[in-house]
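In this supplementary section we document a worked example of the pipeline. Step one takes a protein sequence of length 237 as its only input; no multiple sequence alignment statistics are reported here. Step two produces a three-dimensional model, which step three serialises into structure tokens for compact storage. The input and output of this example are shown verbatim.
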Amino acid sequence: MQSTARPCSCAELGSSKHFSANQLSCCYGLLYSRSEADLLLSECESKFKYLSKEQSRVKVYGKWHDIPRQQCAYGDPDISYKFSGAMVSSQPWPEFLSIVRDKVSALCGCDFNFVLVNRYKDGIDYMGEHQDNEKGLDPQAPIASLSLGRGRDFVFRHKSVRHRSRHRPADSDNLKIELRHGTLLVMNPPTNNHWYHSLPARKQLLGVRVNMTFRKLKVKLPNATPSSKTLLDPRCS
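The serialised model returned by step three reads:
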């Protein structure tokens, strides 16, 4: 699988690449220079308030597990995110993170209202294979992933491969991208409905990595009744 030559939707990213395959569409490139990314990582390390181990457990196949990394979330008022049996409530946006959010939102053409932050202390910490397709997410919005610190491999695997389907579609080979310091990866829909992704352990690697995934969560209309359906915020283009 190779990146195409055509420009991705995030045209302002430095050295941008567009990756496409069977139901996969992603663009990747440099958002912050080395010096800018260094300053931003330093600010993250001093200001982010991570959840305790008890607060950040997930349920997998009926059993609760500690996650192999630190986690916290920031977002608009009264927004929370549920995944793997866990409910993560958002903290108010710090000023520096609001600036990052606005920059990413402008690039993607979407007003993100939530960010999930994961901190990997070294290569031992990892993210297991999963899909970001929870019901609380706006299915028409992209997910934008900002990486700071130690570069790590990010692996996509098509659901037919993971489930060992006999009918494996064409152009569904695994895709690996090294997410480097200061880069942004944008996963456009319907990528997360058809592809799993992971950040495998690399035990020999040293150095902290902080990742921010900006998301658009569904919101309810003001004065909605219990019988009202949850509607999507129309601000996402």
